[in-house]
Amino acid sequence: MSHLTSHLPSNFNPEDIGLRPITVDADISAVFEGHRLSSAFQPIFSLTLQRAVGYEALLRARDVADLYVSPPQLFAGLSPERQNDLDSLSHLLHLNSYRQLSKDGEWIFLNMTPEVFLGARHAKSGMSFGDTLAALRILPHCVVIELLEKDVRDSAEFEKAVAYFRELGCLIALDDFGAGSSNFDRVWSLRPKIVKLDRNLIHRASRTTRVRRILPQLISLLHEAGAMVLVEGVETDEEAYLALDANADFAQGYLFGRPAPTLSDPEETRDVMRSIWCSFDEHWNKDGRRQKNALAPYVNAIGNASVLLSAHRSMAAACAAFLELPEATICYLLDERGQQIGGNRWGQGFAAFPDPRLAPLRDTHNARWSRCPYFRRAIENFGKVQITRPYLSISSARLCVTVSVCFLQGDEIRVICGDVNWNPELMLRSNKKGDEKCLKAI
């Protein structure tokens, strides 16, 4: 056994950052309160670059009987002061291991407790986190400081700590976003460069259509807030596909590699990424064909409705074939300003607001829809049927997609719109019948 300083510059002493004396061996492990500590690194992949761009450093501990002790167990048995000592020691251990292993300057992600984060710029002896990095000859821009979302504080001291790490050159990541009482106030106040989505989000998205639908919107909003997004807990090809489909920047999980004392082998990870992208391409094409097939009868029917209206047929006659389709909710006509002409015509089996609590929304005469994508896109693509993403319709209080097309009725510009109840499974089962009805109408 040798002292830690044998792995560090000669003028560096662990006691300078307030740690009790510790020892390490050639594998860069340490002894703390009778426990043998070591580092494990889990790769973090860029889905676009198709390679590991960083590693989360994780603490591993074994007791005197060489039995594994989880970090929460180890921390739970310590006083607050010793918890801070252990957290600081784990950073020193991780950084020292990282500098021995990293060759390409990948990021190292360090988890920090709030107390250690707040005290990083003025440790016990006056030696800051920046001084530690300098002693280890690690560039600050390679270090990502992870903070649990629930630990973000609205205080002057916390803001000073954030400013310190930013000025030092480190990146800040907000961890476990989407767990518990998450809210965007913490994103606005912390302004993290990376937001790590809680692992439960991707698991729920793989099982629940509603969460799967919301995930891309959540990631888009975080992008607009100036943060890159990392999806944690990716364990299956399906979850990897969802992360890709939602436009996440990074992914982490057992599918890409388990925590290990060494960094991942580029050859092995290259095969993983190749497999994931092949799966994504397959899913993407399949989902695209599936949606196209499901909506084809509605697209054809709304296009035919515009032809009939151009020929001065009545609204009832023009919309009849569309409204006979199984998931057609409503049909309505807009003028060149997006203002509705007349009321809604309802499909079979879709009553106008059966819930009496939504009665104030029932009357849509003279409603103005010019800000809606289905109107704007139709105006910009005259004569071509447009399809929106699923959204909640104020007209029906249902999740739907809208098919729309711009046409001329005499000298007047018109946009005919049809809302389709967004139930892909039911639409697919009804495709054959819907195609037959649509063909007969045309």
Keywords for this structure?
six-stranded antiparallel beta sheet, 18 strands, disordered C terminus, 14 helices, eight-stranded mixed β-barrel, alpha/beta, 442 residues, 2 domains, disordered N terminus, TIM Barrel, 23% strand, Beta-Lactamase
Q: What can you see in these coordinates?
A:
With 442 residues, the chain is an alpha/beta fold. It folds into 2 domains: 2-264, TIM Barrel; 296-441, 2-Layer Sandwich (Beta-Lactamase), CATH 3.30.450.20. It has 14 helices and 18 strands. α7 packs across α9 (237-245) and α10 packs antiparallel against α11. The longest helix has 45 residues, at 266-310. The radius of gyration is 29 Å and the shape is elongated.
CATH fold-level assignment of the largest domain: TIM Barrel
Estimate the mean pLDDT confidence: 85
Which percent range fits the helix content?
Answer: 25-40%
Strand line-up in the sheet with most strands: 4-5-7-8-9-10-11-12
Instruction: Tell me the name of the CATH class of the largest domain.
Output: Alpha Beta
Question: Spans of 5+ residues with little confidence (pLDDT < 50)?
Answer: 1-12, 15-26, 430-442
Give the overall shape: elongated
How many individual helices? Answer: 14
Structural class: alpha/beta
Count of folded domains: 2
Termini separation: 85 Å
Tell me the radius of gyration: 29 Å
Topology:
Elements: E1 2-3, E2 23-24, E3 30-32, E4 35-46, E5 51-62, E6 68-69, H1 71-76, H2 80-101, E7 107-111, H3 114-119, H4 129-136, E8 143-148, H5 156-168, E9 171-177, H6 185-190, E10 194-197, H7 199-207, H8 209-224, E11 228-231, H9 237-245, E12 250-251, H10 266-310, H11 315-323, E13 328-334, E14 340-346, H12 373-380, E15 386-387, E16 391-392, E17 399-409, E18 412-421, H13 424-429, H14 431-441
Parallel strand pairs: 5-7, 7-8, 8-9, 9-10, 10-11, 11-12
Antiparallel strand pairs: 1-2, 3-4, 4-5, 4-12, 5-6, 13-14, 13-18, 15-17, 16-17, 17-18
